[in-house]
Amino acid sequence: MSVIQEIRCSNCGAPITFNPGEIIATCQYCGFTCVIETGKAFTLEHSMILNEYNPTQTKELVRNWMKSGFLKPGDLAKSSKILEKNLVYLPFWMVPVTAASKYKGIFERLVPPVVKEEKIEKKYDWLVLARKAAEFPTREYDVPLEGKIVYDFRKVEGFAKVLNSEMDEREAVELAKQQIEAHHQFLAKQDVDRIIEMKNYFSIGDSVYIHAPIWFIAYEYKDERYNIILDGATGTVIKGDIPATKFGLF
Fold it and tell me: What 3-state class would DSSP assign to 145?
């Protein structure tokens, strides 16, 4: 078990609990967000997305997902049992990036091979999960930014868990750049078979620190456990485990 530590909120004096590794925390009593190492106010924008579904509604959303799609077992909704429904406000960094990659590569599917020089240029609101040891399908998650509001601790449900950030803006920006580089390499390899050289250029905007409501749901089907990740703002399934059918499909 991780050791929970505590500091005092410099705004209201209430205790702020945090786990080792977390560097940005929010007081659950007054909503003050601070940098743990210094206790000073967090000066960047701190936003949140509101959860729109209670546990009963979430269960219905899961049942509807189970009934849809031809790859799922026909009796999935009827024969499965929901084991857990946990609402977690996950911390993310939204990093605005304009990224350009100039590359040279060889297209080897022709004889003789052809050397190509091309450029990829795209704008992103790149999402980075602010937890270092956790896994989350960020590329499948389209954050509903139209519902973004200033973080308000009073709008967090009593049964929900709020996780703090384990990275600052600088670390999030560096991780975003690494991930975008890998993404542009993937795109370049759709055009050439072998990359000879690649240079990347980035223009970074003002990052946003945001908490988003994510439901983590576990269900049982034929004595096997499966997991579903559901967007609490839109009710859509971000990622869901599907039992194998008799044809061996997932």
Answer: helix
DSSP state of 153: G
Ramachandran class of 101: left when φ > 0, alpha when ψ lies in -120 to 50, beta otherwise: beta
pLDDT of residue 4: 54
Which residue intervals of the chain are DSSP H helices? 55-67, 76-79, 169-188
- Between 41 and 249, the more confident residue is 41
Q: Are strands 24-26 and 33-35 parallel, antiparallel or unpaired?
A: antiparallel
Nearest-angstrom CA–CA distance, 169 and 95 = 9
Q: Which pair of tokens denotes residue 68?
A: 């849809």
One-letter identity of residue 142? D
Q: Based on the number of CB atoms within 10 Å of its own CB, is 51 exposed (0-12), middle (13-18) or buried (19 or more)?
A: buried
Q: Degrees (nearest 5) of the Cα angle 164, 166, 169?
A: 105
Report the predicted TM-score, pTM, of the whole model to 2 decimal places: 0.85
| CA 201 to each of CA 50, 95, 100, 125, 222: distance values in angstroms, whole numbers, following the listed order | 35, 15, 5, 16, 51
First to last CA, the chain: 34
Interacting residues of 126 by C-beta distance below 8 A, sequence separation 6+? 94, 95, 96, 97, 176, 179, 180
Cα separations in angstroms, 57 against 30, 71, 85, 247: 29, 24, 11, 32
Residues 132-178: pLDDT tens digits? 877 899 999 988 888 899 999 899 999 999 999 999 999 999 999 99
Instruction: Say how far apart CA 6 and CA 15 lie, in whole Å.
Output: 6
Tokens of 76: 């999935």
**Per the structure block, which two tokens stand in for 150?**
């200033």
